[in-house]
Design goal:
With 532 residues, the chain is of the alpha/beta class. The protein has two domains: 257 residues, ATPase, nucleotide binding domain (Nucleotidyltransferase, domain 5); 219 residues, ATPase, nucleotide binding domain (Nucleotidyltransferase, domain 5, 2-Layer Sandwich). Helix content is 39%, strand content 18%. Strands 17-18-16-15-21-22-23 form a seven-stranded mixed β-sheet, with helices on both faces. Helix 11 packs across helix 12. The radius of gyration is 23 Å and the shape is globular. InterPro entries: ATPase_NBD (IPR043129), FGGY_C (IPR018485), FGGY_Carb_Kinase (IPR050406), FGGY_N (IPR018484).
Length: 532
């Protein structure tokens, strides 16, 4: 069939991902080829000290992103989109969306970006003997309990952003195992919540007298390829305000951006990994063996199939670079020059390649928010330079690129050096890698290992979610019975795909020299947080 016929016959697949700054919808065929796309730009808000997105903005963003996909379909193919074969929803992992028995949101959405659950995360980690990060949903729930928040007694269920949207579309309170692993620890043998830790949590809150059990208010866990329900009549009307979309589409298990990142990069098997660098940055490695020790810098989550993954997550990555891009664009506009933001970013990134390898005394901290790895509860973006620094534009930009992945490097060194984890293949994706030959070179220096970027690297999570939806529909139809990895490397990727950059020895040394200054200067960043 032609692309037009695929769409007209209801054989297209859609993935929608709620990212930090963009909600993107992608339509593909069964082979992963992109047919159309649409998006909606948004930003989180700091309200009463809580990073959040308003629930009505969530609804509006979903509808406008999908609506723009519909427009793209109509403009490219002259087709009114009425039927989708399968659909998948993904979003930023973690956070806290709690509802009562009537589906009322009890408190505003608390996103992954909040660092307000330190007490809870610490107590849970000690009790479980398993690292529970501050951004995990169970940390938010337990912190609310410790804070004696009145809403907790009324909780009927809580979930992630992806789980919430999936429920609105299907009526199913389910979650893909990868996203679920950011709510509560998963037992990779049973592919479900860890029963021993569930029991320990019950004991921790037994004196509170709640009329709910922790397992009953968590979403049901599903694996990649499972049937996660179908689009209901009310779900179709909720998604498509025109009323053209028909009910009945199969939905894949809703996933987090970590799982869609693994899928979009084909890194779901043992000893493979990926690094996603955008508003936040995280690296994930599928583990061959369990880690030997508990590290608070290392999270253990899962692939969309339920296999253990070591994850280094940092709250901050490219937001400060984006802010500086705005400054430079503002300068060009004030000078009467035409502003092309793609050219601004390309110039910024490429200039970093002409810098001194160690940035010659220019240091940048990209902390818009707190960063657990370096012990900061909140952030103050900051540039510091030594009195004898070579403060050139090139060094300034290289320092900003180094800063974007500096916290990640601290965590990865624990994983690769202290734990001795072997990585056969690391694949990069996200906006940090958009300028060819720059982001992957900087990341290779940070990791001291080869980094591959795929031709599809710019598509990222929504494309990965669409692939998961395609995988579910093929399994549902009985057309494919293999593993997710077999689907990805049998139908979507080939082993030679992408551009691979090996680490340059001078770059590695320069990055390590920069990191000495960076680590020493964290005390200055903490002082800024305390005093400003």
């Amino acid at each position: 069939m032609t692309n037009k016929e695929i769409i007209e016959n209801g054989q297209a697949v859609v993935g929608i991902e709620f990212g930090s700054t963009r909600i993107k919808s992608v339509m593909i065929d069964d082979k992963g080829n992109i047919l159309a796309s649409g998006d909606f730009t948004w930003e989180n808000s700091l309200v009463d000290g809580i990073w959040t997105y308003d629930i009505e903005l969530i609804h509006k963003g979903l509808r406008e992103s999908y609506g723009n996909l519909v427009k793209d379909v109509n403009e490219k193919y002259g087709v009114t989109l009425k039927k989708i074969k399968s659909l998948g929803i993904s979003a930023m992992m973690h956070g806290y969306l709690a509802f009562d028995k009537d589906d009322n949101l009890l408190v505003p959405f608390r996103t992954w970006r909040n660092t307000i659950t330190g007490e809870a995360a610490g107590k849970l980690t000690d009790e479980f003997g398993f690292n529970i990060p501050e951004r995990w949903s169970i940390s938010h729930l337990y912190q609310a309990i410790l804070n004696k928040e009145a809403h907790v007694k009324d909780i009927a269920y809580f979930t992630t952003l992806a789980g919430y949207i999936h429920y609105k579309l299907t009526g199913k309170k389910v979650l893909g195992v990868g996203d679920a692993s950011g709510m509560f620890p998963i037992d990779s043998k049973t592919k479900n919540y860890n029963e021993d830790m569930l029991s320990k949590f019950r004991n921790m809150i037994s004196s509170e007298g709640f009329n709910w059990d922790i397992k009953d208010i968590l979403p049901e866990v599903l694996l990649a390829g499972d049937n996660a329900g179908t689009l209901t009549e009310s779900g179709a009307a909720f998604l498509d305000v025109t009323g053209n979309l028909e009910a009945g589409s199969l939905l894949a298990p809703p996933e987090g951006d970590a799982g869609t990142g693994m899928t979009a990069t084909g890194s779901v098997k043992v000893r493979t990994g990926n690094v996603s660098a955008g508003t936040s940055v995280f690296a994930m490695v599928v583990l061959e063996n369990p880690v030997k020790e508990l590290h608070r810098e290392i999270d253990i989550v899962t692939t969309p199939c339920g296999d253990d993954v070591a994850m280094v997550h940092c709250n901050n990555c490219t937001s400060d670079i984006n802010a500086w891009a705005g400054i430079f664009a503002g300068f060009l506009k004030a000078a009467g020059k035409e502003v092309d933001m793609n050219e601004v970013y390309t110039t910024m990134f490429k200039s970093a390649l002409d810098a001194d390898k160690n940035c010659s005394g220019v240091i940048s901290y990209n902390y818009f928010s707190g960063e657990q790895i370096t012990g900061l509860l909140s952030g103050r973006p900051m540039v510091v330079r030594k009195e004898n620094a070579n403060f050139s534009f090139e060094n300034f930009m290289r320092a900003n690129l180094y800063s974007a992945v500096a916290s990640l490097k601290i965590g990865l060194d624990i994983l690769t050096i202290d734990e001795g984890v072997t990585i056969d293949k690391m694949i990069g994706h996200g906006g940090f890698f958009k300028t060819p030959g720059v982001g992957n070179r900087i990341m290779a220096a940070a990791m001291n290992s080869a980094v591959t970027t795929l031709k599809t690297a710019g598509e990222g999570g929504p494309w990965g979610m669409a692939l998961l939806a395609a995988y579910s529909s093929l399994k549902e139809e009985g057309k494919f019975n293999g593993s997710l990895d077999e689907f990805l490397y049998g139908e979507i990727f080939s082993e030679g795909d992408g551009e691979t950059v090996e680490p340059d020895a001078a770059d590695v040394k320069g990055f390590n020299d920069f990191m000495k200054d960076y680590k020493a200067g964290i005390a200055v960043e903490k002082c800024a947080v305390d005093t400003l």
